[in-house]
Amino acid sequence: MNASESKKYAIVINTFKCLDCKACMIACKVENDLPQGFWRNWVRYPGSDPEKRTHFQPGQCMQCDEPSCVAACPVGATYKQVGGLVVIDSGKCIGCGNCVTACPYGARYRNPVKRIADKCDFCQHRLEQGEDPACVETCPTKARVFGDLNDPHSQVSKLLKKENLVQVVNPVVNTKPSIYYVKGTRPVDWPVLPTLPGGVHMPTEFWKRSA
User: Count of CB atoms within 10 A of residue 86's CB?
Assistant: First the structure.
């Protein structure tokens, strides 16, 4: 078994530590050269009533163990690497949008410049250099903790054993996400929980609006 086969990347989020400074969003946008108005990660609120906002909600692609986006891609452009990282092959993506509508977390979008699907990939290029994702690296309070769950010495592995961690599971389909929240700090209301259609469809009108 090589190094990549033995890895299982994950992020543990403690929302009580989030200050809503948006440093993670800016770092991700700059690091990955994202188009104006589009983001790979986010910080949202747990409710519409300002008086009930007790903590913020950082989020991003869940890097699922059983990703519905991979199953939805007709050309294999979205695939799961050995080691569990879900990525997009920009050379294969045809911009059909199946993966965007299939994601139960609303974590994908169509890049209006490249005209292909895009999402967080844990800054794959940084991982290959032994660096943490930009959002993790830049967070001043370390609300996001990144690491390899298969490494017993990693911080995420220790948190998984020490803390009572929970996952945000879509009520329609359990894709087994690799983003964990410290219990009591997980999102109260997930921002996007769409009901998946009976079959994957081609969102023609969506692409027309995004063109």
Answer: 23
Q: Provide the pairing of β-strand 57-60 with 41-44.
A: antiparallel
> Does residue 182 sit within a domain?
yes
Burial grade of 126 (CB within 10 A; 0-12, 13-18, 19 or more) = middle
Range of the domain at 109: 9-210
State how many domains the chain has. 1
Phi-psi region of 118 (alpha: psi -120 to 50; beta: other; left: phi over 0): beta
SS3 content of the chain, % helix, strand, coil (to 5): 25, 15, 60
For the stretch 111-157, pLDDT in tens is 999 999 999 999 999 999 999 999 999 999 999 999 999 999 999 99
Which pTM value belongs to this model?
0.82
Q: What CATH code is carried by the domain that includes residue 84?
A: 3.30.70.20
Nearest to 194 by CA among 179, 172, 176: 172
Distant-in-sequence, close-in-space partners of 203: CB < 8 Å, separation ≥ 6: 97, 98, 100, 101
pLDDT in tens, 70-96: 999 999 999 999 778 999 999 999 999
Q: How many Cα atoms sit within 13 Å of 36 on the Cβ side?
A: 0
